[in-house]
Design brief:
about 290 residues, alpha+beta, Ribosomal Protein S5, domain 2, Alpha-Beta Plaits, four-stranded antiparallel β-sheet, 10 strands, globular
Length: about 290
């Protein structure tokens, strides 16, 4: 199939989890056995990475802003290779990934980059590839980013239900620690401290009423004792006049809710002056339902 015209830069949004409950592990003998069962409210943000995807005879990847591999060890490369193989095309793509999000930070950066790659290649080649099927094989968070918008995500990440969430303004605080998702889930498995489903309606009601959000992140129980700097980041956000501080995903990024975009930007600027070596941003939810 003849490739289309070059695409402009594609935005790959970060996400936060307005609550993350890990219900348990899928039993043996069932589909996705051994994977963790999730119940989480995911929200895409207006901060993220950028990708440029251009038709090319072969597949190549260049990464700017981070020291990352550019072969099959990179999720973007694997996503592109999976798409091109499924499309049965002889064409390729020249991909430039500009990393703006910290690595291993609980913001879904790699998953978002992979999903954005799939979407860009589908627009280039229009091969009618089953993107959700490819996405779920690439990672639990990848399907969410195929159609980013506030959503309840269940199963191992493959079930997505849009939710009517009003704008949420947050401050993101990454203390410079990389936390492996594999480690975070292993620590949880060791403790077997699984949790029940979130009360999604209560969370949504609290967002609408600008009240403290009644949520949790199951993974905090294993991560925080091993990374006191993340617990300190949560305390910093609360002390700065924000509410409902929580670790996002497997960490290490934490966030808390501001009264408005202006409030979030003011607090983020103040925290950056106190912690010039940390990654701190204001972020609001981004996307469509």
């Amino acid at each position: 199939m003849t490739p289309g015209t070059p695409l402009p830069h594609d935005f790959a949004p970060a996400k936060i989890n307005l609550g993350l409950s890990v219900l348990g592990v899928v039993p043996a003998g069932q589909p996705y056995a051994g994977y963790h069962q999730l119940h989480t409210l995911m929200v895409p943000l207006d901060v993220g990475d950028d990708l440029s995807v251009t038709p090319s005879p072969a597949l190549s990847l260049r990464v700017e802003g981070a020291d990352l591999p550019t072969d099959r060890r990179n999720l973007v490369y694997r996503a592109a290779r999976a798409y091109l193989d499924a499309a049965r095309t002889e064409g390729g793509a020249e991909i430039v990934l500009t990393k703006r999000l910290p690595l291993a930070s609980g913001l879904g950066g790699g998953s978002s980059d992979a999903a954005t790659t799939l979407l860009a290649l589908e627009r280039l080649y229009g091969a009618g590839v089953d993107l959700p099927a490819l996405a779920v094989r690439l990672g639990a968070d990848v399907p969410f980013f195929l159609r980013p918008g506030p959503a309840l995500v269940e199963g191992i990440g493959e079930r997505r239900t849009p939710v009517p969430l009003p704008p949420v303004h947050t401050v993101l605080f990454n203390p410079g620690t990389a936390v492996s998702a594999a480690d975070a889930y292993r620590w949880l498995d060791d403790s077997a401290h699984f949790t029940p489903p979130l009360d999604v309606e209560a969370i949504l009601d609290a967002v609408r009423g600008e009240q403290t959000l009644p949520y949790l992140n199951t993974l905090e129980t294993g991560v925080l004792p091993r990374h006191p700097e993340i617990a300190a980041a949560l305390a910093e956000l609360a002390a700065a006049g924000l509410h409902s501080p929580l670790m996002s995903g497997s960490g290490s990024t934490c966030f808390a809710v501001a009264q408005s975009r202006e409030h979030a930007e003011e607090v983020a600027e103040r925290l950056r002056k106190r912690h010039p070596d940390h990654w701190i941003r204001a972020g609001s939810w981004w996307g469509t339902l």
